[in-house]
Design goal:
single chain, six-stranded parallel β-sheet, 32% helix, globular
């Protein structure tokens, strides 16, 4: 039997002194004047932050969401920024409209998503289909609509907002995990097909955050605490309170 290791301690004299506090976020200089950007799920959360940052950099931003009121508030917040912000009220399940909306885009941010937490045997097939449509097929169609312009200009940026669920699985999230894994794969294919000077796809995996559809309830153990079966709503909509039934 191997004896347990004794933790190594650092003498106080050799311990590094605490340095000055650093900002958790550093603004990167960015000039997108003359560029057109499109952000899905732009009315709140990560999408809202992306839309405002792109407008601040001078881009003309197409803010796509199905939350009309959220888009209105976003437009008010963007007033006075160097770039223009256009509200695009669009349901991403309309795939043809989504592809058309991406025409002429230089910067594409695929952010919109939705969630339902439920065991596979109880998961509604229509919801599974909707999750994959919004979170995987719509990004494919948006990329498809944007690439000809990017290739033609020899410049483009594609940012697919992924998740830790694009790398690892969680129980009761079959649709969300499937969609995020697919989005990771799509990003890799775009990277292989596109000339490096024409399009630079990125699959961003942000840390845990609370999107608009998150109910705020997180069980410490799925065996002891179950997610409410109706605690879901599209990220591109206002949050839906979970049902107690």
């Amino acid at each position: 039997m191997t004896a347990p290791r004794t933790p190594r301690t650092v003498p106080p004299s050799s311990a590094p002194a605490p340095g000055p506090a650093r900002s958790s976020a550093t603004a990167v200089p960015l000039d997108l004047a003359g560029r057109t950007a499109l952000v899905t799920g732009a009315a709140g959360g990560i999408g809202r932050a992306c839309a405002l940052r792109l407008a601040a950099a001078g881009a003309e931003v197409r803010a796509v969401d199905r939350d009309a009121e959220g888009l209105r508030r976003l437009a008010e917040r963007a007033e006075g920024l160097p770039g223009a912000l256009k509200q695009v009220h669009l349901d991403l399940t309309d795939l043809d409209a989504a592809e058309r909306a991406a025409t002429g885009t230089d910067v594409l941010v695929n952010n919109a998503g939705l969630q339902l937490v439920r065991p596979i045997q109880d998961f509604p097939p229509d919801v599974f289909r909707t999750v994959l449509t919004v979170m995987l097929e719509a990004p494919f169609r948006l990329v498809r609509g944007a690439l000809p312009h990017m290739y033609g200009r020899g410049w483009g940026r594609i940012v697919n907002i992924s998740s830790v669920h694009g790398l690892r699985a969680s129980a009761y999230k079959s649709a969300y995990v499937s969609a995020k894994h697919g989005l990771e794969g799509l990003s890799k294919v775009v990277a292989l097909e596109g000339p490096r000077t024409a399009s630079r796809p990125t699959a961003s995996t942000p840390p845990m955050c609370a999107p608009r559809w998150w109910s705020g309830r997180s069980p410490t153990s799925p065996r002891r605490t179950a997610y409410p079966p109706t605690a879901w709503s599209p990220r591109s909509c206002s949050p839906t309170p979970p049902s107690s039934g």
